[in-house]
Amino acid sequence: MDDKKRVCISFIGAGKAGVSLGAYFRSKGLEISGYLSRSRKSAISAAELTSSKAFTALSDLAAASDIIIVSTPDGAIAEVWEELRKCDIRDRIVCHLSGSLSSDIFDGIAAKSSFGYSVHPMFAFSGKDGYFEGVEKACFTLEGAKEKLGEVREIFMRTGNRIFVIDKSKKALYHASNVMVSNLVTALLSIGTESFEKCGVKKEEAIEALLPLIRGNIENIAKKGFPGSLTGPVERNDTDTIMKHLDVMEEDERLIYSLLTKKLAKLSKVKHPGRDQSKLLELLEKNL
Q: How far apart are CA 117 and CA 163, in angstroms?
């Protein structure tokens, strides 16, 4: 991407990701041509936040853009592409922001002399008010046509974000990894909070009390890695305590607890390679 050439980026979809990224890109000196959305109100709002244009026709958006980012929900990407491919998009870079879908969703894009990519931000956007704090620390994963991959990478060289280029065949596994460390952690924290509530603590107080423990664990992982951050009964090989935990849990909770404890035992083995975990593992297998 030549610095002397003005590269215009447009967004189809004016939701949280599209608006936040547009505002972020603009703050880094990138040119935003505008937005098109099913909601005219949303497109106008996004355009105002990014000093760009609210388009009403795909053909106009395509004509004004070098890079077109489809920032709709995953289920709408194929539908948007079917309409976009009817436009003159020769030599355009077309991206989507899905974590689970690959660039293959842009079926037939090579025949349009265009280039398709998936560009996934490893970040949870909280609103569509143009607030993008924290995005500068986020990583992005890319995959797609080799021809203009360098130009897509150049966007993030300008913003300063770290990027990973992955194979399209790994998209589902990649997205599962993201879900496991974000959405599924939310579910696990919810289970833990509910258990604390059963001890007679109000929900709001339970969350507030547990947050320092949660934050401390994340900080320890960042500093020491997984084995080095281990504490608790698994790290001590305390089978008796783990048995007491399992005895007071519902069936589903016992299964989750046992599966995760089995994984923790493997991490603990790295830290304590000579330790005998046979009693612990036998207990866990009985609850799987």
A: 14
